[in-house]
């Protein structure tokens, strides 16, 4: 195998190690439904293998189906998450055998395949990028399921750099055009394409994500009880749900506590807030006299290099992510303290845009002008519209393989179990 193929093989191995680590539990934990919002873990496990079979073995390599009878069960569009426990799912041992069988054949295909042709699925190893990123995204989903379950054992406390209590509250992004999306990143998804020019007026954007201390001040100030701050549907959601704090938070006397993978600990006030819905982020921003950034504002502040007049792959440039630049890949099971990554700053000086927490933006998930679905409509196209808000940047649980300045994630505005926070923006006053 050449170097590129070796790299792909290493990525396949790494993501599988991760999936197996998250599912190395007793069968009962894997088959149980921890929340109607989430699949049983054993569904995710076999689903990633089935997806890999469909795309690499059947579509790219033309191999006959291994187990066509299970396709229906693992089709995410046929069965909503809440119904998945009632399906005749493969048991944990069978699921592991199945995905291992698929993987063995996938490595044979990788060895034999021509990564420069004959189809766009082969080119630059796109189909391998597709399944690697897909599995990492499901791993992050599994981690959210495990956090909901209260399951201990997932806290990993790799040393994160200390926070830094200096620097401006906001950075300024002057008016002007930038290139949004990508024409060149080979493993980018269809929804990141095509690259196109967007001309924005000048704006301010927070240098850092909103922290727990600032968010607690919003709560103490009665932010959850004041309809002035809330979008109308947000206010309805807040009243119906009775929500008064981020998910997994509880107050005891004067102290906020949180539960993190089964451990109860004081809320670290210097960390970015996470587990808030879009509605909460939107309300906080209004309370703070600001607003959420649009997706274009977020991407320009993160990725645009105004001197070179081109987009960077990461805020800091082209260099691959490493521990000194961003908190990714579940090295620690939490966001890093605010200000921990000065070396990871964008050209405009915005920090922690990649890693730590996904960031809600004000934008609906919509196609870019000239969008073409690839390789299938159900990855992005069926989600476009006014139902899902765009999330950017990637959390501490996201893998570097599925993070870049152009990467787009999306979810319902009420979602809170995902590792999501936000930062605010502000239009320049003239
Ligand atoms: C991009 C994270 C919203 O999990 O629904 C997984 C990714 N697509 N399988 C999701 C995805 C197909 C997707 N998100
Ligand atoms: Fe999937």
TrEMBL record:
Binding site for gamma-L-glutamyl-L-cysteine: 81-84, 411, 415
Cofactor: Fe(2+)
EC number: 1.14.99.50
Binding site for Fe cation: 47, 134, 138
Catalyzed reaction equations: gamma-L-glutamyl-L-cysteine + hercynine + O2 = gamma-L-glutamyl-hercynylcysteine S-oxide + H2O
Pfam families: DinB_2, FGE-sulfatase
Sample GO molecular function, one term: gamma-glutamyl hercynylcysteine sulfoxide synthase activity
Pathway note: Amino-acid biosynthesis; ergothioneine biosynthesis
InterPro entries: CTDL_fold, DinB-like, DinB/YfiT-like, EgtB, EgtB_Actinobacteria, Sulfatase_Mod_Factor_Kinase, SUMF_dom, SUMF_sf
Top class in the EC scheme: oxidoreductase
Domain DinB-like, chain residue ranges per copy: 14-142
Key words of the record: Iron, Metal-binding, Monooxygenase, Oxidoreductase
Domain Sulfatase-modifying factor enzyme-like: 167-426
Gene3D superfamilies: paralog of FGE (formylglycine-generating enzyme) (3.90.1580.10)
UniProt family annotation: Belongs to the EgtB family.
PANTHER family according to UniProt: HERCYNINE OXYGENASE, SULFATASE MODIFYING FACTOR 1, 2
Known role: Catalyzes the oxidative sulfurization of hercynine (N-alpha,N-alpha,N-alpha-trimethyl-L-histidine) into hercynyl-gamma-L-glutamyl-L-cysteine sulfoxide, a step in the biosynthesis pathway of ergothioneine.
Protein name, per record: Hercynine oxygenase
Designated gene of the protein: egtB
């Amino acid at each position: 195998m050449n170097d590129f193929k070796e790299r792909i093989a290493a990525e396949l191995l790494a993501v599988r190690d991760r999936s197996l680590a998250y599912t190395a539990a007793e069968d009962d934990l894997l088959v149980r439904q921890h929340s109607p919002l989430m699949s049983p873990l054993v569904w995710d496990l076999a689903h990633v293998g089935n997806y890999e079979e469909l795309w690499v073995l059947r579509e790219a390599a033309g191999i006959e189906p291994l187990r066509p009878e299970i396709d229906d069960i693992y089709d995410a569009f046929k069965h909503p998450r809440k119904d998945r426990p009632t399906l005749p799912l493969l048991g944990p041992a069978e699921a592991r055998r199945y995905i291992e069988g698929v993987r063995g054949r996938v490595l044979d295909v990788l060895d034999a395949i021509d990564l420069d042709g004959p189809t766009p699925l082969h080119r630059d190893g796109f189909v391998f990028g597709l399944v690697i990123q897909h599995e990492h995204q499901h791993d992050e989903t599994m981690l959210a399921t495990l956090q909901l379950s209260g399951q201990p054992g997932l806290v990993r406390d790799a040393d994160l750099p200390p926070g830094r209590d200096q620097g401006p509250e906001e950075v300024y992004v002057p008016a002007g055009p930038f290139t949004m999306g990508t024409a060149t990143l080979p493993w980018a998804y269809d929804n990141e394409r095509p690259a196109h020019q967007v001309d924005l007026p000048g704006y301010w954007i927070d240098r850092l994500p909103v922290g727990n201390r600032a968010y607690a001040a919003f709560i103490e100030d009665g932010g959850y009880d004041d309809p002035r701050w809330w979008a109308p549907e947000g206010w309805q959601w807040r009243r119906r749900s009775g929500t008064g704090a981020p998910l997994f938070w509880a107050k005891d006397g004067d102290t906020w506590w949180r539960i993190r993978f089964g451990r109860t600990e004081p809320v670290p006030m210097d960390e970015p807030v996470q587990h808030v819905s879009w509605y909460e982020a939107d309300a906080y921003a209004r309370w703070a006299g600001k607003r959420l950034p649009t997706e274009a504002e977020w991407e320009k502040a993160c990725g645009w290099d105004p001197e070179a007049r081109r987009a960077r792959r990461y805020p800091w440039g082209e260099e691959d992510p490493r521990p000194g630049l961003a908190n990714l890949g579940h090295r620690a099971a939490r966001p890093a303290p605010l200000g921990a990554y000065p070396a990871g700053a964008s050209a405009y000086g915005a920090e922690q845009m990649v890693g730590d927490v996904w960031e809600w933006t004000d934008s609906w998930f919509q196609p870019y002008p000239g969008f073409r679905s690839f390789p299938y409509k159900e990855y992005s196209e069926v989600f476009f519209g006014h139902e899902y808000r765009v999330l950017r940047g990637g959390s501490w649980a996201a893998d570097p393989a599925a993070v870049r300045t152009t990467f787009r994630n999306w979810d319902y505005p009420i979602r809170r179990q995902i590792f999501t926070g936000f930062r605010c923006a502000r239009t320049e006053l003239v």
